[in-house]
Design goal:
The protein has about 280 residues and is mainly α. About 65% of the residues lie in helices and about 5% in strands. The protein has 13 helices and 5 strands. A hairpin with a 6-residue loop joins β1 and β2. α10 packs antiparallel against α12.
Amino acid sequence: MKEEKEKEKIDEEERDEEKTKKENDSNLSPEELESMLIARKIHDLKSDYMVQDKKTSVMRPCDYRDIVILVRSGGDLNEVLKRTLEKQGIPAYITSKSGYFTSNEIVTLLNYLAVINNPYNDIELYGSLTSVFGGFSDNEAAILRILSKGDLYTALIYSSQMDVTAEAARLEDIDEATLITVRDKASNFLQVVNSYRELVPYTPIHDLLRKIINDYEYIERMSALPMGEQKAANALMLLRKAEGFEENGFKGLYIFINYIEKLKKYSFCKYEGRPCCPS
């Protein structure tokens, strides 16, 4: 008899708890309800789901860093989701369309990949020339346009081969020392880009990107900047995107660039993990 009463009490408490939960849910916005469902699913995955570790190939319990949520941009879900996950004790950060893909460290890498794929893209080429990959000042990049009309890549080629003395005589406002600097930077930029272009047909995209990152000590450079840890983590995330792209059976730099363009249409919610340098 006593056991039956205790069971009835437990059942009643469970019904009250379920009723309270439904009442609370009824007061939530659609975004909050969706966020709660996501949080519950994450807790379920964390408790019961096993994943294969990429490095060891051993099955292990799912961790927060294994989970990614893609959310269409333009809605109110991002911040609501982040707040909900934090309340549920789930560590997360959100990189939105206006964040990750427009961050300088990612734009710089994507511009350079675009130039390697097709150097006749003026916007991406200018961005690469005035970045760590080109080392041109804005004034030096402008001189390329003065030296040769037409597209920027043609001007770059012309500048890399120019007769400095003749050009200095033609352009009285630009001294020879400046022209020599522009010529040498143009020549070096073309040489390096062409060396990467030669690798494209037979090199996996993640290996090409890793080589670029390592050749220019990109992670170290980003780490030295304000908010450097996040900038470095963003660059490494792009490397992981390239790995995931190829793990799904895709190949080719042109296809990868288009793949990234499609990803830009989404917001990206990623669970925090420690940055690590590429090997």
